[in-house]
Write a structure and sequence with these properties.
Largest sheet: 8 strands, mixed
Strand order of the largest sheet: 1-2-4-3-5-6-7-8
Low-confidence stretches: none
Number of strands: 8
Structural class: alpha/beta
Shape: globular
Radius of gyration: 17 Å
Strand content: 15-25%
Distance between the termini: 27 Å
Length: 292
Amino acid sequence: MPLQQLSLPDGRTIDLYVSGPDDGVPFVFHHGTPGSYVPPRALERQVIGRGLRFVMWSRPGYGGSTRKAGRSVVDVVADTEAVLAALGAARCVVGGRSGGGPHALACAARLRQAASVLVIAGVAPFEAEGLDFLAGMGQDNLDEFGAALEGEDALRRYLVPQREQLANVTSDEIVGAMASLLPEVDRAVITDEFGEDLAASFREAVRLGVDGWLDDDLAFVQPWGFELGEITVPVEVWQGSEDLMVPFAHGQWLAQRVPNAEVHLETGEGHLSIANDDPTNDAILGRLLAAV
């Protein structure tokens, strides 16, 4: 079965999703915030079509994955190492979208098995020099990060009602639930299979509570635990000018500071529309594989 529970060295378990050829190089994809192991099926098909093994898991506290309170972004590296060990993989390529972006960058910096890394609409560090982290975000994100800065109790009070909106959300309801964060270009792609996958990921993310979401947010407003200057592998950075969740300035900041980056700052694209079509993803996968 693609979905399994993997026991980690520290006693935690994670909900792990693996599909594709057993002998394929793993494509490890870190989901957004909130999110879960539920795969974007179009991307999964393209990954498998390239002969890769598609790998996702719910970060600690999401879905059935055991919480790791107080985790930092860099902690994802140890979990990724455990997953790769279970798969018997010596090399991998890594991707991350939105809240998965910093986790992908952590792998670029510290994961010895990472050959190349993809970051799509990834958030920059909170205390990034020269960046106003909150500027340009939709009101929902302003409220959420404002609560995060007040601490865990305030953030939990904020997220619990948000969970009620997402616990049973359908693709048709996502726009209403996230109206302040979605420009027209993003609303247009929340249809059909992609919309269904996004809604399913949200539902699974908050199925048992808000711990994963809360711990992601707290980790984002703290130091990540590594420096971008540690990165030596090829990295692709994609960011859209219309993004209201992770504003364009975040992508611009990362573009200037991530070593070895191939940068795509796309005018007219949003948070969900960016790097979300078959030809683009196929080209990205080809470049990532060139480093393996």
